[in-house]
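Summary for the steering committee. The consortium agreed at its last meeting that each partner would contribute one worked example illustrating the joint modelling workflow. Our contribution is presented below. We chose a case with several input lines so that the handling of multiple components could be demonstrated. No manual editing was applied between input and output; the record is shown as generated.
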Amino acid sequence: MNLRMTTAAMTCGLLAFATAAKADSGGPVCGLNTGEAATGEPIRVGGISGNAPPGDFSGGTRAAAAYFACVNANGGIHGRPIAYSVGNDQWNPELAGQIASRLVEDEGVVALVGNGSVVEMAVNAELYAEHGVMAMASGCAISECFESANIVSTNQGPLPSGIGALRFAIEELGAEHAACIGFNIPNNGGWACDWMNRYMEQHGLRGTSILMDPTSVDLNGTYLQALASGADTILLMLPAGPAIGLLGVAEEQAGRDMFNWVSPTPLYEPGVTEVLGDYWDGHIYINIELNQFDSDGADNRNWIAVMDAHGRDGDRRDTFSQAGYLSARFFVEALLELDPESIDRASVTDAIRGIVGAESDLLCGPFYVGDGDRHMPNHRGRMVVLRGDAFELVRNCFDIDTAYLEPILEQERRLGLRD
Amino acid sequence: MKPNFRSALALLFFCVAIFVLPLVLGGFWIRAFTSAAIFALAAAGVGLVYAQLGLINLSQIALIGVGGWIALRLNFATDLPVFLLVVIAGLGTSALGALFALPALRLRGLYLALVTLMVAATFQILFNAFQFPNGGSGFWGVAQQSGQAMRRPSIATSDAAYLAFSMVWLALGLLLIEAHKRSAPGRAWKMIRMSEANAMAAGINVTWFKIWAFALSGFLAGTAGALLAGALRQLDARSFTAIEGVLLFALAVVGGVYSWVGAVLAGVLYKLLPALLNNLGVTSDLALIVFGVALLHAIMTAPRGIAGQFEALFQRKDKA
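What follows is the complete predicted structure of the assembly.
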């Protein structure tokens, strides 16, 4: 382990210790935790999230904003506050490109943190690479997010989370033929469902993709397609809204017991249990990318404390929010390693790439970035089942076995994170 | 406004747009102005058919998508220069635009509007079902993975240079329209607009000139689609919904369909206003309310659009 990694590990350890100690006392722990407001020259940081029908991906940027506010109130980055500027791409590729240009070219941000979108990463991955700026995202759902050198996310996205749900369905529910229901978007539903099918084939089983037009969702037709496919398991590769709608259709047609029902993370949202009701009690299994919202881990409690103290009323408290908090925390820890007077885009990019072995109880494994041409540090998840008015943990941290992860696992070996 | 003054004004506008804007604007506005220029080109096409023949075409957004599809497909399948890709996309879309003219030979007004709206809805479904090429194999060229990027011309790889490139295309497109207006097609369209029966009696091939207008409009939409693919480096099916076609036509009317200024204003309203609102931290959907009010204003008080009001203002000053 070189000196840089040792220093980073020690800093992480100290911050984790402080987090645990302070979280026990109920207040949030952020950055240097001095209790004094930072007053130096601001460090400009950007963020892009999409908030428009059919989904709100702002949880990551809102949590990052809350964490940065907390850091600024606690000494900042050795006295320098973080000036966080966020844009809403409204699921519009042109707006996404315009906002990225404003942040990266006009405002000269040193990095982007907390990004969550279904269009932003595809449009802007090349811009980030051209300008040597890193995006520490937290709400990734498309392939470009995990296949670009300058984007790294703390969330898993649909592919590992979906395969995790499938693995559970095969091992615990006896799934033999899974229908993956997603949106017909090549780098989203098409990409994820394609890899679901390969995963099923890899295990000598069968997978079927049922892809819906995202501009005119026909849930009844989709459900009938799933019935006709002969699948025994349905994987809901959808945002929470359409997934709940499809479950409603299945309930109307008494379809609960005709399939095993599994889902990646999006269905794990506060309030979903009330919406779905008793009918689905014990019948929906969800792979979660980060720890449970009510877990006792120090970092999870600190996320809640930060949102309580520095969040806004109405801020989402979902997985993207947890991931946004994590991205912001890892980002701040990387910045604290730098000489505050020499912080610029190049030094920040190097510092982010230098993150190796950062830990959190929200994750199932160490977080890292490195200098690979793609990043997917979070690929181990947990499984929960809807039980009563809560989600109950049914399988703790487990990994997935898919060819997609081969270059990722090779990176981990190079970084000394895996044998 | 005297013709010489009008030409000088147009020349000055495009000199500023091509040579000055890319130098003085920041990254955000460069991208916003690029989108505005591209959609002004498409609006000029839809305005042409409405102004010259009095026909409502709500399917222009579908033609923009078709142009983008052709450009992307050729981009991944061939090494043709981007300039040529834009021309081929324009010509291919022009042929489809001519096909769209077939219903217009028998229909007008509300019925033609409904038919073209259905065409736009059909293409919305087709785009979502088959998606835009992203470097995959086969005829459709779609791979279920991260997409590859559309090339840009070597002289316009940066966003600033691409804005100038798009402005040049807009200027060429508007000149093409002007050339048509001042020659045989323009005279024929004028007669057809006044009375199809009289036009036929005068020996004008009404069918041919209607198809020609739609083909020209399709050409402009196709080039706009190809330019849009280069601006965004890829296209998303969700950008080409039928409702966008209605919006584009409405804004062409608001801007004014009888002069090039109207098309430019339509592009500005359609793309710069939402960008401005977003930049102010306000949802760009608010622009829809502004568009609605502007359309009411145009229908009630300014049938020649905002551009017509500007012209009337100048003419009053000239008389004074």
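The radius of gyration of chain B is 19 Å. Residues 27-53 of chain B form the longest helix (27 residues).
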